[in-house]
Amino acid sequence: HAFHPLDISAIAFWEKDFRNRDDTFAELRAVDGLTWHRPTESMFPHEETGYWAVTRHADIRHVSQHPELFSSSNGISMDPMPAEIQRSMTFFLTMDPPEHTRYRRLISMAFTPKQVRRIEAQIEANAKRIVGELLDDLDSGEPVDFTDAVSKKLPMLTISEMIGIHPDEHEAVAFAAESVFSASDDEYAGGLEEQAVFLMTQLGILTGAGVELAKKRRLDPRDDLMTNIVNAEVDGHRLTDDEIGAFMVLLGSAGNDTTKQTTSHAFKALIDNPDQRRWLLEDLEGRIGGAVDEFIRWSTPVISFARHAAVDTEIAGTPIAAGEKVVLFYCSGNFDDQVFDDPYRFDLDRFPNPHVGFGGGGPHFCLGKQLAVMELKHLFTELLTRLPDVELGDPEYVRSDFVHGVKRMPIRRV
Ligand code: HEM
């Protein structure tokens, strides 16, 4: 296929606010059918011809909801890295039903609404403490990095406490988890080869931490997710060390970095839109739920996931051959004017808000949605009611094709 001239890799946009990508995606959504694009530059050179860009909301939902047509097992990242490497980072995200169903069922035990409510009091207490510490930091009058002081903390504490990670290891696990998503940022390593080595090192740290913790829980069971995992069986066998390592990477990264990024983007949007902030504060308890939906739509922390056609099929009239790759651009679907009125307006009163930030439905739909929503509700309730007026410096964005990330965002008391 002929390549479309528009470069839609996030890396092409990373230096600017990501809102600069909106025109590009609006242009692609208006094209009949799909467009074919060059593969992104990969840390792990790998044969790949290109991919179809799925940019419309309806098409993203169609692909997500038909795993029999669009498979996950040949890789799910926009980066064309080999599927085996992807699997070690994403566990059952890179599987198809029925294999996927068996593993997902196992991990789902920890994410039932009942289980999530069980840890709500702890999430609320952690949110209060984090905001209390932020207030102390701001008192100094010096700029504080919001991502470091706030965004990263609640998700890290929540997932670490659920899995059973020792507090001494929280920082290292969180750093490794963040690196899995943003290894392409040259803050960590320059050059693709160095980045690949860095990524594999951080993956090793995460998987090693998982395997060590599993060992401890086999000897000394506790009331935590790792104890359940080491005791559970899938297809009549206990999870292998490789599987436990991949579980740790998936939950460590999915549970940490996504919610962190939404926190930074949403905080910025609230400062940039004081009318929206005032409206929310008029009935915080009644409105925060809908507001969090808009936080997710607006921030879309996961830029894209991919699939490969399992059979010859079509999307929006474009024939797709078996084996071809399709990339689901959630960051485009969430701004599709066929679904969202005035999509580039940050509108906390948007209803309904059928965003695809947690995926387009189907078997891989985000397992941590309730948990993420609960964290964001408590954190923003605290921030909005207790924080004095602050001034925001320029955010620095993560250079990544996968995560819509904010590296640093200074704030200062005014
Ligand atoms: C899957 C987004 C928070 C655990 C996903 C997917 C997306 C996503 C887009 C893929 C959906 C698909 O392929 O159809 C987000 C966002 C979050 C968030 C935007 C926060 C703002 C969390 C949290 C956890 C979590 C807090 C766990 C603690 C998972 C897992 C999967 C997943 C385990 C894989 C599900 C599967 O393959 O069956 N998430 N996520 N996520 N997420 Fe989340």
Automatic annotation (TrEMBL):
Keywords: Heme, Iron, Metal-binding, Monooxygenase, Oxidoreductase. Gene3D superfamilies: Cytochrome P450. InterPro entries: Cyt_P450 (IPR001128), Cyt_P450_B (IPR002397), Cyt_P450_sf (IPR036396). Its cofactor is heme. Belongs to the cytochrome P450 family. This is Cytochrome P450.
